[in-house]
Specification:
Number of strands: 17
Largest sheet: 7 strands, mixed
Structural class: alpha/beta
Number of domains: 2
Low-confidence stretches: none
Distance between the termini: 11 Å
Mean pLDDT: 96
């Protein structure tokens, strides 16, 4: 089978390797390229030592089932959650399963034709879906649901700072939830695309206050600058990954006297993934609009090149 190996910054190689064996074998039908994949490709990543296979946003068809899983059978199309919380530890029981330290994981990335999944993971992390490329959005949408859940109240007005793929996914969710949604983005290409989706967008802040402000770009200074746009009782959500030692400054008056909260959102729990699958089932046409480019694994360098130029939204590999 073919598998795309990451060999170091800006180095990819398509290799022929043996088909995996395991409890459940899945033929990958589609795999999304996320911001972490792009960051790893460009600069490397401490968690992904080359040579390795990247990719964790995928769906596929079960082609082998070597264990008894009553809810699944050969031929089922499934969205694959890349990890699953244990459901038993203190973090899971206190309501933050996305931070569980005892998760099960996929054993390999999904930029490949087949993956094998253990029975333990498959029993909780495979969700039946229809065969639609938009199923690659299940994992990022699950992360967005987790972030949205952290907001103190459902926003009447929602501001998204950063109009990349994840920022626009937040905006699309805002639209689907009936929020008046606005995106701030500097890139002319992205601004045009966002506006074509029917979402208000500009390169400068709009007038008025917002109940929820999502930071989908990792510039710490912006948090303090946009605090003034938060409504009383509103929330600032730090969604983008920030450098480990970076600091933010927030107006303490707004936090105390106006009860503006500052929260983080990282990853997802299985309940978020299940909700994402259900939402894609009922509103697939809305969220499919995020997807702009499809590539074969043979053209992987072009996929990463167009993403690095900022001239794409969701890029995915079709197998």
């Amino acid at each position: 089978m073919k598998a795309l190996f990451y060999l170091g910054p800006e180095r990819l190689e398509l290799r022929e390797i043996g088909k995996p064996k395991g409890d459940v074998v899945i033929k990958i039908l589609g795999a999304g390229v996320c911001g972490t994949d792009l960051k790893t490709y460009l600069k490397g990543h401490p968690m992904f030592k080359p040579p390795t296979i990247l990719g964790h946003e995928c769906y596929g068809r079960i082609v082998e089932l070597n264990v008894d899983l009553k809810s699944l059978e050969v031929g089922d199309t499934v969205a694959v959650a890349p990890y699953a919380e244990c459901g038993k530890c203190d973090l899971c029981e206190t309501g933050v399963p996305e931070l569980c330290k005892s998760k099960t994981y996929l054993e390999t990335g999904c930029f490949t034709q087949y993956i094998a999944v253990s029975r333990e993971h498959a029993s909780r992390a495979l969700f039946k879906v229809t065969d639609d490329p938009a199923q690659i959005l299940a994992e990022p949408l699950a992360c967005v649901f987790n972030g949205f859940e952290k907001l103190r109240v459902k926003p009447r007005r929602l501001l998204v700072v950063g109009g990349g793929p994840m920022g626009v996914l937040f905006a699309l969710l805002g639209v689907s939830e009936g929020c008046e949604t606005f995106v701030i983005e500097k890139s002319a290409w992205r601004l045009e695309h966002i506006r074509n989706l029917g979402i208000e967008a500009a390169d400068t802040p709009p007038e008025g206050l917002f109940d929820g402000i999502i930071f989908a770009v990792n510039i710490p200074e912006l948090v303090g600058q946009y605090t003034r746009l938060a409504n009383d009782g509103g929330s600032l959500l730090l969604f983008s990954g920030y450098p480990k030692d970076s600091l933010i400054e927030v107006d303490s008056y707004a936090v105390h006297y106006r009860e503006v909260s500052v929260v983080g959102g990282f990853g997802f729990a299985l309940r978020h993934f299940e909700r994402a699958v259900q939402t894609l089932s009922s509103q697939v046409e809305l969220f499919r609009r995020l997807m702009t480019h499809r590539f074969d694994l043979e053209n992987a360098p072009k996929a990463f090149e167009i993403l690095s130029k900022g001239e794409a939204m969701k890029v995915f590999f079709g197998m």
